[in-house]
Amino acid sequence: MNETIQPTPEQSAIIRYDPTKPLRVAAGAGTGKTSTIALRLEWLIGQGAVEPETTLGITFTVKAAEELQHRLMTQLLELAEDGRVPLVTTYHGFAFSIVQEFGGYLGLDQQTRVITPGFGRQLLLETLSEGRYEHLDLSHVRGRIEELVGLGSELSNHLYRPQDLSNPADALNDIELRRSELAEVLARYDLKKRALSAVDFGDMIAVAHHIVATIPRVRTELRRRFQLVLLDEYQDTNAAQRKLLTSLFSEGHPVTAVGDTGQTIYEWRGATARNFDAFPTDFPDPDGNPSATLQLTTNYRSGTSVLDLANQIRKRTGEQQVRDLVAAPSNPDAEVATAWFHSAVDEANWIAQEVMRVHEEEGIERSGGGAIRWSDIAVLFRKNAHIDLVRQALEAEGIPVEVASIGALVHVPEVAQLHAWLQLLERGDLDGAVLRILLGPRFRLGIGDIAKLVGWNEGSTTTQVLEAIEAVANNPASGPDLDVEIARRVSQFWDEYRTLLIVAQGLTLGDLCRRILDTTSAWIEIESMHDAARLSARLNVYRFLDLAEAWSPLEGRPSLAAFLDYLDSLLDETAADEMEAAHVGSEDAVALLTVHRAKGLEWEVVVLPALAYGIFPSQGKGANPEKSPAALPLSMRPDHDATMDADTFVRFRHEVQEWRTAYVAVTRAKQRLVATGAYFYSFVKPKRPGELFEIIRNSPTTVERRVPGPTPKDGEGPDSLTITIDASPDPDFSEGWREELTSRLESNIPMQPNEALAEQQAVLFDIPVPLPASVADEELAVSVTGLVT
């Protein structure tokens, strides 16, 4: 055994446990479960109980599999040098290997390919468009695609087929009728995949289970091949994965499963803590008795103050049998602090100042030694909607940031411009995309210029900006009286748009994104920024490019329309890709991401903002099967408590999920945890501190940096909910022209480009000529989505 590692008594009991029996390991957050698994395997090999190449390790993500593989190879260095290493894979990867190797027994093509979730949506869109429906409303196609994705996931997560849902003739209400028609679409979708010799992630488990359940020789071969099985993050498995594993290894096979029901936060994809709870009976000892459970409770990550808080939060999940986490003697001291503010802007600005103070002034050291880096700090959010304001505040302080939540990327200015171009090329009639581009840093048109373009031809019915620009381009002599420089910019925009529209027909999405960046000189603009802003822009654009590159179909050019719909879906925090654990880059930047994407990660300093009532814990309830056709009927759910009606069941599951998510959030911090919130996240009714904030605030060791004052009354909200970059006074707009414009648009006040606005444009964009009265008197309707923020 590696002499440099001294296992604790808890770890030693697990490492030396009987190699012939299954074992469940309840490992709390930060308790060194991966190291313990590696040490157990090393000990078993040393005892001659197993050979490394006959060991199978399974975990959820490729990143986790690589980490486990690295740990195992480090512990087994001499054997690894001889090529004798365990097989480490993901749950889906293991299932797919079964399909590829043994699918021929069922007549399956051994060249079966895997389709990405993105291409799956594109294929669903094609399938949906080919049918006729009585009960599905196709006026909102994207909504139907989301329902198909949700129902399809529910079915595959529980090893059901679309045909298992009730027939339309048996439907009792409109929800069941719509669910039946969705099931018909999914059945045709399955046929399309089969014709392409393709499977999606849900299919992998179902097909692998069918092979294992119907062909005894496959079970015999896999049990012989893998004499020891290590299951990581077992609490996140769904019913289908559990059935696959029990079909293979339930008869006394030496399976070691590690998990923590307190971190079961992926129920959206079918994960259920009941799998971990049922392990002793699902994987009994060779004599038929329930297998044993050992615990890991010594945390090697966080200080005592953080762990005391985590233990308190975990009790809110209702779990009674779990021992409290305790800090290892080597853990650094920890500080927990709270701060409450009047508005979200005050909160965001304070967070930026606090991050700067921790990095520059306090002199606290990293756990491994050295000064705190930007990348040692993370701001974790419950919802994507709250990321952008904090990002703006951090960037205003010159702090580099990496937005690791995909749905929030589209609000980052450099990515927003690229996203707008993609929208324009596919959905050319969207004024929001056109306005974002024209009002942005490349063309720098003003509202007055837009007014001239839209209203230059009296009596024309043209109201869309792109149509107006096309009309001007086709007949420049009779166009509006634009300043020479503005006319040049409009012409340049039209030329670039036409060029990109043509080349887009023959490019992959990744290449199209790169062509847009090159054509619009985006990289030159990024390189001209100061160091922190340049790093932030690069990281966020690269992340978006990675997303576009991953959008890979099996045949033909990927659909830009489907990709844009996919991006729209990521604005929902429950979207599958938005809930997966994030991969944070190695650059020195503060990470901004949701709690769900932070699972498995850790930082020296963690800030939890927006802990207001209804935000975190959130008040949503999830999909009620009696009200949503995308939800599986309760009668088909193995985790349904028959004593609860649908509303009670859904609400109970949601509340438990929220407290588990809070437990995950708190346990990401090593040395410092800062919880913040504000009364106003909108201009309307104020929010009060949420229950999570109050728990943190009332913890005995918490330091209150800013105490909540009396709850404001309605109407006492903030004057502004935007970050002010330039605080210099404005003679025409006391809150700045952007704030004035936003306020008027949100209040549905007609905008009239008057002389004051024209003068402001002259200051900002070098437009020397005030608007003529004939144009100034006309109203201009502008969408808020077109604003540059």
Description:
The chain has 789 residues and is α/β, with parallel strands linked by helices. The chain has four domains: 9-100 and 204-296, 3-Layer(aba) Sandwich (Rossmann fold); 116-195, no CATH class; 335-400 and 570-706, 3-Layer(aba) Sandwich (Rossmann fold), CATH 3.40.50.300; 413-565 and 726-786, Orthogonal Bundle (PCRA, domain 4). 45% of the residues lie in helices and 10% in strands. It is built from 33 helices and 17 strands. The strands form four sheets. The chain has a seven-stranded parallel beta sheet, with helices on both faces. It has a six-stranded parallel beta sheet with strand order 3-2-6-7-1-8. Strands 4-5 form a two-stranded parallel ribbon. Helix 29 links the parallel strand 15 and strand 16 (669-680). Mean pLDDT is 83; it is low at 553-557, 727-732 and 748-789.
C-alpha-based Rg, rounded: 29 Å
CATH fold assignment of the largest domain? PCRA, domain 4
Structural class, from helix and strand content? alpha/beta
Task: Report how far apart the termini are.
Answer: 57 Å
Q: Which superfamily, in CATH terms, is the homologous superfamily of the largest domain?
A: PCRA, domain 4
Count every helix, treating DSSP H or I runs of 4 or more residues as helices.
Answer: 33
Shape: globular
**Largest sheet strand order:** 13-14-12-15-16-11-17
